[in-house]
Design a protein that fits this description.
By secondary structure, this protein is an alpha+beta fold. The chain has three helices and four strands; from the N terminus they run H-E-E-H-E-E-H. The chain has a domain at about 40-119. The N and C termini lie far apart (about 65 Å). It has helices spanning about 10-35, 60-70, 95-105; strands at about 40-45, 55-60, 80-85, 95. It is about 40% helix and about 15% strand. The chain has a four-stranded antiparallel sheet with strand order 2-1-3-4.
Length: about 120
């Protein structure tokens, strides 16, 4: 048997590799949790009547993004807000900024939707 095929790894080196792998897994789990379980709240303001405001709650950003794509023509994307449990209304971002972030900065979605078409 050719021993060159197998490298001997010290316990310390193995522990470092395992710790790095565990950290990577924790990051992936945290990202998945945000995608699936994070609570979002939308304050929707109608294009027709700025006094027409509706609150909606979502679990997971995928459901939020899909909902926004369905209603984007009916709401004011610059004044309608996206909030989370740890973001106050004064720090909230609007739908336009949220969708830009999801599609361009994060690159989560690649389905041809472009928020600029509604800007």
């Amino acid at each position: 048997m050719n021993n060159d095929l197998f490298k001997r790894v010290s316990e310390q080196e193995f522990a470092k590799m395992k710790a790095a792998e565990d950290e990577e897994l924790k990051k992936a789990e945290k990202e998945f949790d945000k995608k699936v379980n994070k609570k979002y709240i939308l304050l929707l303001i109608s294009n027709e009547d700025e006094d027409d405001k509706t609150w909606k709650e979502f679990l997971g950003r995928d459901s939020l993004v899909e909902y926004i794509k369905q209603i984007v023509e009916d709401v004011d994307i610059k004044h309608s807000l996206v909030l989370t449990e740890n973001v106050s209304i004064k720090d909230a971002i609007n739908i336009y900024e949220f969708m830009k972030y999801m599609y361009e900065t994060k690159g989560y979605y690649n389905d041809g939707f472009d928020i600029e078409d509604y800007n």
